[in-house]
Amino acid sequence: MKLRISAHLCGWPKEVVANRRKVMEIVHDAGYEGVEGFEVKNAEELVELGALAAEYGLHLVNVHAADPLLKAKFNATLGNDAAEVPAVWKRDGKIDPSDAELDQIAVTMGAHIKTFTKYGIKPFHHIHVNTLLETVDDCARTLKHIPGLWLLYDTGHLLASNCNPMDVLKRWPGQIAHVHLKNYWKQNPAVKLDPHSPDFYSWKTSRFCDLAEGNTGLDVKAVLDGLVAIKFAGWVALEEDHPKRDIAAVVRDNRAFLRNLGY
Questions:
Q1: What is the reported pLDDT for 197?
Q2: By C-alpha distance, which of 114, 105, 108, 88 is closest to 144?
Q3: Which CATH number goes with the domain that contains 178?
Q4: Closest C-alpha to 172, from 203, 143, 147
Q5: What is the pLDDT of residue 93?
């Protein structure tokens, strides 16, 4: 089975992202099939962006729009079968919601789920530090309270939350709609860091990194093999949040890393 690989624009230099044709050139030249991370404000812009992507043989993945209804319609128009619902962030950065609060969240989330599924879109929520889905335990609680919600399986944020990404893959193979594949580096891999610390995004003692550079235990091949084993048909987006070197080289090197693994 062949996995579909896209590049994700999170953390790219703003001056590069602003030049959409340059983005397409970088992603195409590195050998990706799709690109994720664009926001679209209206239908006319969607047409123009879609036409530009088509010039480079790229598919637009998980296109963002401020209005969830428009987001569902835009992604359905692009032929996508999954897109991201608005994130729910933890109160005060680290306070887990009670069961009653989760039930309240489920009402709002349920409306988004209904909208997305109406257009044939799997509604997924990002597994991400400081959100409703931060840890493996969070996933278990949330999926119990919010039926119909799918997962954006983010290996880097699971590592940052001191979790084993393989646990999500093994426990909810049928609930993964999208993947962000990224690695994580820590100055001292043996020390558990608090992802809610103000220093977390300073990138001094830890950071997201090239797939080949991680030192916190991610077995990239095991993740990819696992996705193939469950017949995952969504997109695998290669992401390095806020890279420290030339973005074209990062995108190229991460794609080459997967090729060396047989993907």
A1: 85
A2: 105
A3: 3.20.20.150
A4: 143
A5: 65
Question: What is the DSSP secondary-structure string of 151-189?
Answer: EEEEHHHHHHTT--HHHHHHH-TTSEEEEEE-EEEESST
Query: Residue with structure tokens 């830890």?
Result: 206
Domain count, the chain: 1
Q: Average pLDDT by consecutive 10-residue portion of the chain (263 residues)?
A: 94 94 98 98 98 98 98 98 96 84 95 98 97 97 96 97 97 98 95 86 88 96 98 95 89 97 97
CB neighbour list of residue 1: distance below 8 Å, 6 or more residues apart: 228, 231
Q: Cα–Cα distance between 204 and 166 in angstroms, integer?
A: 26
Token reading at 88: 């729910």
Radius of gyration of the chain (CA): 18
Whole domain around residue 90: which residue ranges? 4-260
Cα 215 from Cα 262, distance rounded (Å): 21
Q: Is the pTM of this model over 0.85?
A: yes
Q: How many residues does the chain have?
A: 263
Q: Which is it for strands 206-209 and 183-186: parallel, antiparallel or unpaired? A: antiparallel
